[in-house]
Amino acid sequence: NIITRKDTDGIEGSAFYGAPFEEGGEEERYNALWGTTFDRGHIQVAADYYKRHELKLGDRKYLDCAEDYLFSTGGARIDKIDPRTGNYTCRDLLWGQIWLYDYTYYYTASPSNLIAASNGRPIRRIQYNYAGDNLQNYIPPLAPTGGDPFLFEAPAGWFGVGYDGPSYAVENAIHPFVRDSTFIPETERSTLFVEGTYDLTNAIELFGEFLFNHRESYQNGARQFWQFGFTENFVPGFGDPFSPGFNGAVLISPTPITDWFDSGQSVDYYRGMAGAKGDFGGALAGWSWDFHTQYSRSEGEYYQQVILQEAIDTQDFRTASCVGTFLPISGRPCIDINWTNPEFLRGNLTAEERAFLFDDETGKTEYTQMSAEASVTGSLFELWAGTVDVAVGAAWRNDEINDVPGDVTLANNSWGLSGAGITKGESTTKEVFAEGDIPLLTDVPFAKRLNVRLSGRYTEVDTVGDGDETYKIGANWQVNDWLRFRGAYGTSFRAPQLFELFLANQTSFLSQRNVDPCIQWGLNLANGAISQQLADNCAADGIPDDYLGGAITATIVTGGGLGVLKPETSVAKSLSVVLTPKEFLPSGTNLSIALDYFEIEVEGEIAQLGAGNIVTGCYDSNFFPGDPLCQLFTRGTPTDPFTISEVRDSFININSQTNRGIDLTVEARQELPDGWGDLS
Questions:
Q1: pTM, full prediction
Q2: 132: region left, alpha or beta (phi > 0 left; psi from -120 to 50 alpha)
Q3: Are 215 and 189 within 8 A, CB to CB?
């Protein structure tokens, strides 16, 4: 709760500028306040401007190179050293590489089609020897194929990396695009606030507020993207004509880096509130009333640079030119790209390539809320221990959301990012409430004061059907000047939020290792990493004990739960004892000790379980395969019968969650001699 000043009479202003010794991340803020008071009220106007300058990863040495930070059991640093720099190797976004897969599209223990390194281990990634890298000085070249047309072969200048310590140390992970990426985004915010009151009569006060806030932020980004395809001579007479010099029955995945990953947000927020409050007279003297209504609106735009899924689709597993065809959604003419070109892999795309692969979009979100509330407070009657005070009231609220993603996202045409539909809906809430403070004892033995507070509320939300009652009972027992007990028992109610109800289905992607607990379940069982039950259920599903997971990511689908979600409910209990033994302490010493026990249980909590939790919960269930979680995902793709293809992770009500604990708070204050103040 914020209580604004009401006594400003004149103009105030302030300015702030903060800058680190190194460039980037500066902050500046300027604000002004004008106010005036008069016989029947006051008015004040405040304006504020704030700007946070961007801090890039490359602006700070400690951000520029992400290191492994590995230590031996003896405490020694054992990170690999990059021989090109003499420093610990940087492990950030890899670039300039081509990933290799054997023709079955599986990671197998000894793929016969991948070329072996000098130590006999299969090579998974190759990296181009860019000018100045001098990879030939640190790692051996690719082994010869011996004339075997099925073994992988690459043109001169390519080296195997990532298969042992030396080759791991020279993987490219620092790129100008990454250095230029945002660590703290540039943010600009402007605010205008107007507030005032006016005494219509001696018993009635009018009041109002207006707030406007504008915020803009921008982030520079970098990302990998990739294509899957064949070598030029995958098998004799069959392959990708645009992978020159790459041969053998191996699937390749060139993985370029790009800086086409910027994003930005712009939000305008308006809020207006008006109301009146006053005192009753006559027979209701001592009673007061309050009525106010409010309207708020948020208008947001979010910008994103994207890669077109339809463009990538034309490049995957191609065996001929696509020139002369057109993309099905955007209508762009198709072009042939050499993904193995080292300049393409380092992000130096031609204007034609950028125009074909990239696009940008802007989505819009509008959120509005209207509300009104009226309440009456006063003293109901007198008891032997004091006055019974009560408050009663009613509230009404309407919320609306309309989120329209950009055209690319709406068409599910954004490579590597979520697709989404329009999220639109509204809800209306009606409430009535009452609260009373009842004094039971005062100034009697063992009770300096004992009072009970009762409150109740009935809430009805049209999106979830029937309403619900909530209540709270609290007691405060002041035994004497130094001992107090307090306790409360209450219930609560939360209706689903608009996005939890109306969120249109969206898709995202996770690697199989983040989703599938059955990957290498035999090894994990032997290591004690999984239960026997989980292993048995993976086996019952036909998954081999040495299955290493598919290369294709799992699609994660999320959405709202209109018609399915119910409100959350909770019960909260608390019991406390408070000691303030001032009379037993020396003069100038104050001590307060509070011991609080609390227990909160939420039932029907609205949440997303998470894709990994859904799949793991299915395979670790006593009821496999009949557990409802097992119906929330599917296995199997045209190239791999075991790959998890889709997980449906929408909002649901989960059973319950309980939180209980004890808090001990001790606060002491001692007056210091000779006017030196207090020590607390």
A1: 0.80
A2: left
A3: yes
